[in-house]
Amino acid sequence: MNRYTDCGPVNSAKSVEKECKGLKAKLSDDVVLDKSLEAKLIEWKSEVLSKRCELEARQKKVEDVVAEA
Questions:
Q1: pLDDT tens track, the chain, 69 positions
Q2: CA distances for 21 relative to 2, 9, 24, 25, 63, angstroms
Q3: pTM beyond cutoff 0.70
């Protein structure tokens, strides 16, 4: 067998490299998605905290009105 007909290891290495590049690209996409979701979670937590503070303030006003009556 000469070196020109036995391309198995070369093809295998190229296949592994291609798969590795694909996995790196997917990992990169996943990291970007993860950061995006983390930012959205922080935004939602902030909104929930704001709404909670508004609700507590309204509740206190209602309690004050009821206490005056």
A1: 455 556 677 788 889 999 999 999 999 999 999 999 999 999 999 999 999 999 999 999 999 999 987
A2: 30, 18, 5, 6, 63
A3: no
